[in-house]
Amino acid sequence: MIPLKDDIPTSRFPVLTVAIILICCAVYFLFEQGLWDLGTTGNERVFEFGAIPYEISHPGDECDIEPASQQVICEGQAGVTGAASDQAPWWVTIFISMFMHGSLLHLGGNMLFLWIFGNNIEDSMSRWRFVAFYLLGGIAALLAQVIMNTDSSVPTVGASGAIAAVLGGYAVLYPRARVITVVFIIIIFTVIELPALLVLGLWFLLQLLPAFSEPVTNTGGGVAYFAHIGGFAFGLLMIKLFANRVHEDYEASHRLPVY
């Protein structure tokens, strides 16, 4: 299921949403030097600037790649001696990691969701409130992932946690908006218009089920499902504190006329 467009017009150009998209693209193509996937430089920068749960849950202890085995080891772990090479401070990685991505597909999917739903959330509040909401949503998402596996040494990168907060906020403010969506059924697909609450509810279910059915490990990569859940929950719970200019009459475009 891939959303393509919603039916709520904005009252102003989404400057911040576009800025976030441009920053994420610049970070991926210029800083990480990624194309379809990351190369050596990109992987090195993901390890240095990605948010590593172990470093966040053990402030002052850093992780490094052991040259002989190429395994990730962290200061403070049993049997580990010596000091890791200098890395970006853990509190810096919390913010930088929100703008990094692991592949072009990862980047493209996140930016699509941000463009479709982020413009209306930005429009529902003042500019500075949107910045605060987005960043705090990303932090809440990352903390949820850290809490579920405090000893993980796998770097977490991506805007999806902050975007999940945007999705949670959208579900609260505009549940009956219409979203043009591509729906895949086995080998065929169709384009239909669905209520936003259904689209976002199914998205959340697709995060919830694997989060509690797949084992959480210290070494595997993959999708940070608990970050998505944490970000979405933040958006659901906190959007009313931030949204001070909600488009209340958003259903007008698809109401039947009354004579």
Written account of the structure:
- With 259 residues, the protein is mostly helical.
- It has 9 helices and 5 strands, in the order βαααββααααββαα.
- It has helices spanning 15-31, 40-49, 53-57, 90-96, 104-123, 127-148, 160-173, 196-213, 225-242, and strands at residues 2-6, 63-65, 72-74, 178-185, 188-195.
- The strands form 2 sheets. Strands 1-4-5 form a 3-stranded antiparallel sheet. Strands 2-3 form a two-stranded antiparallel ribbon.
Over the alpha carbons, how many angstroms does the gyration radius reach?
20 Å
Helix/strand class: mainly alpha
CATH class: Mainly Alpha
How many β-strand stretches?
Answer: 5
What fraction of residues sit in β-strands? Answer: 5-15%
Shape: elongated
Please work out how many helical segments DSSP would assign. Answer: 9
CATH level-two architecture:
Up-down Bundle
Uncertain runs are: none
Strand order of the largest sheet: 1-4-5
Instruction: Indicate the mean pLDDT.
Output: 89
Q: What's the number of domains?
A: 1
Topology pattern, helix = H, strand = E = EHHHEEHHHHEEHH
> Helix fraction?
40-55%
Say which CATH homologous superfamily is assigned: Rhomboid-like
**Largest sheet entry:** 3 strands, antiparallel
**What distance lies between the first and last C-alpha atoms, to the nearest angstrom?**
38 Å
CATH topology: Rhomboid-like fold
